[in-house]
Design a protein that fits this description.
Shape: globular
Structural class: mainly beta
Number of domains: 1
Order of helices and strands: EEEEEEEEEE
Number of strands: 10
Length: about 100
């Protein structure tokens, strides 16, 4: 079982329209990766103009609902870090997702 300190970090987020994005860094306490099979969306994405989250911390992956990802271990992300970005024009996705 993984500890909170071992949670996969969000190393980069290029979705500037997200309330948790500050200077291409995620400031959500923990993001959830979810969505239909093959579409690993960032379910924490909030398209607001105000900025939120924690000033001092980088985001981490709190849960991953994609059992078909090679990084998924007991619904936790086992990748050292992930990147979140746009796939298409509007979907904030985990770009580190790798199908089994």
């Amino acid at each position: 079982m993984m500890t909170l300190d071992e949670m996969s970090k969000v190393s980069e987020c290029s979705v500037t329209g997200c309330a948790y994005n500050q200077a291409d860094a995620c400031h959500a306490g923990a993001v959830t990766i979810a969505g239909p099979a093959g579409q690993a969306g960032c379910a924490t994405f909030i398209p607001l103009t105000i900025k939120g989250g924690f000033d001092q911390s980088a985001g981490a992956v709190g849960a991953c609902q994609h059992l078909e990802c090679t990084h998924n271990s007991d619904l936790e992300c086992a990748a050292p870090a992930i990147q979140v970005g746009l796939r298409g024009s509007t979907s904030a996705d985990c770009l580190t997702f790798a199908a089994v």
